[in-house]
Amino acid sequence: MAGAGGGPGTPGGAQEDRERRLAELREEARRTGTVSAPGVNVEGGPLPAGSTSGAKPAGYYGQPVVKAPVWTWEIPTYFFVGGLAGMSAVIAAAARFIGHDAATSIAALWIAAVGAVISALLLISDLGRSSRFLNMLRVFKRRSPMSVGAWTLALFGGLSVLALTLATAQRHLLSAGGGSGALAVLVSVSSLGTAVLGSVLGTYTGVLIGATAIPAWHRHRVLLPAHFGIAGLGSSAALLQLLGFHRPALVAVALAASGAECLVGATVELARHGAADRALRTGRSGALLRLGGLLAGPTAFVLWLMGMLPFGAVAFLLGALVSRFGWLAAGRASARDPQSTLEAQGG
Amino acid sequence: MSIGQGTESPNQAAHDYLAEGRTVGFFTDPTVCIGCKACEVACKEWNMVPDDGYAWSGHSYDNSGDLGASTWRHVKFLEQDLAAGNQVAGPMTVEPGGEEPFRWLFVSDVCKHCEEAGCLEACPTGSIIRTDNGAVFVQDDVCNGCGACVVGCPFGVIDRRPTPLPGAGGAFKCTFCYDRQAVGLTPACAKACPTESIQFGPLDELKERAAVRVHELRQSGFEDARLYDAADTSVRGVHAFFLLLGDPGAYGLPPRPEVPTVHLGPAWASALTTAVMAMLIAVVAFALW
């Protein structure tokens, strides 16, 4: 294809090449009566896409079959923060009931409550009409993951704040020699409820993007909820470590999560879903997913195994965040690729 | 002659389908489409759909590109090899050294108004509803622009309208001219179509007419004539269906569309399993260490 630029004033070899090309065209036209070269397909020019190259684009002029997600940076950030908050509630409950570790439990509940508030703000700011965010709670639709998620987040937010308040009150009362049986029951019920809702909050986001028409997402509808949930669990352990909680149980959770993330990475790499795999392995989305996978998987696992807690934690948190952005980018790339859609919904 | 009874055609006549609760549909037949885009203009004018920019696509005479928040009817212009089927507009001779003949097809695409609608299922606010005549309708005063429907549509129809267009932030698509139907008028696109390539009417009657049309075309040598109605897929049929010559993929239509709710079962099973696994991991970790 002839290069861009190079007007009459352009000095040097480029100008000579272009003059030589004109002479070639003249010679070909004189000899054969026609010119075989297709010309230059300028962006927005009148030549149909594909007419100037050999390959015929898939579908209708290579136009996307499905619409790309309209979600911006708030959504992948929410996937990260929401997963972190939800799974922190799980760790809080395990620390309270199994580990009898009130300090770790209350710290984890803080992450849950603050994360829930940040999550809500992120979701509201992503709405096309943010002032109508309350319409999310207008109805409950169990077949709409967005509806299930909105309700889960709302209930989780309320309950996590309640659990945190009660647990903190109980701790102060106990240290002052007080504390009632009724309060202990309330703390237990609210902590357990927060943990159950949190485990849903940490995993439903995989359903939200898995049950869509986007090939790169729905081809991994089983992997995504597991991936997001496990990443949330590991992120929670990582953040608690960075906050100064070095209990071996947190390292064990972190190792399990980063080990599982290695398996997730391998699953994505080994998938054979035809054109839908392109978005996961090539371009910007592929790079983000691989970078995120390497950080949260093998890198964090090895660092944690070597006892370098803060480094493992930072690697895992970074990896989890980057791969959320990678999945959104992959969804966009996949939607733009008509071949992946026509294969996924093919005959 | 009163409003809504422009011609003798049933396509133009006044009706009472909405009050009767009759399921209505569009049957779009590209073999009689002349590519005039009257449907696109009629839709934009009646529904006051804003101009979303003039772009020169270079794809035959199609400069609308695709269906979206501000394009609710979209005429596609297909240029196919002659070898892909019979020429619709009569035989073209191939002269040595002359221009290659091609099959030129026009089809007016529109929201399919699915029986099992992905956008309606995904909508968390209840903004997207099923109307009495079986259409899928977005209540603009309820929609909060969450974007769930955009990735829920297997046909890439509905989209969120960007700023600075009027109504920006909300999701938009074909309304099936609910306002017109409520007073017995046919949808604007069908009303304006000069060749009745777009036919409006009760879905069952349209299906019968379409079957006859396919038979006629096949008898006349168009062996690749077929109906595209997604009846045997998880979408369970579309209320705006099409006659196609050749492969649906060439029209940018998924050959076997799937409503994304089919993925809910496996995805939720994985989510709940993971939720339990996460609890187990945390419990075991705190029990042992």
Notes on the protein architecture:
The complex is a heterodimer of chains A (347) and B (289). With 347 residues, chain A is an all-alpha fold. Chain A folds into two domains: 70-211, Formate dehydrogenase/DMSO reductase domain (Formate dehydrogenase/DMSO reductase fold), CATH 1.20.1630; 220-332. Chain A contains twelve helices and no strands. In chain A, helix 2 runs antiparallel to helix 5 (181-210). The radius of gyration of chain A is 27 Å and the shape is elongated. The longest helix of chain B is centred in the last third of the chain and has 25 residues, at 264-288. Chain B folds into two domains: 17-258, 2-Layer Sandwich (Alpha-Beta Plaits), CATH 3.30.70; 264-289. The model of chain B is unreliable at 1-6 and 88-92 (pLDDT under 50). Chain B is α+β, with helices and mostly antiparallel strands. Chain B has seven helices and ten strands. In chain B, strands 8-1-10-9 form a four-stranded mixed β-sheet, with helices on one face. In chain B, strands 2-3 form a two-stranded antiparallel ribbon. A two-stranded antiparallel ribbon of chain B has the order 4-5. Chains A and B meet through helix 2, helix 4, helix 5, helix 7 and helix 8 of A and strand 2, helix 3, strand 6 and helix 7 of B.
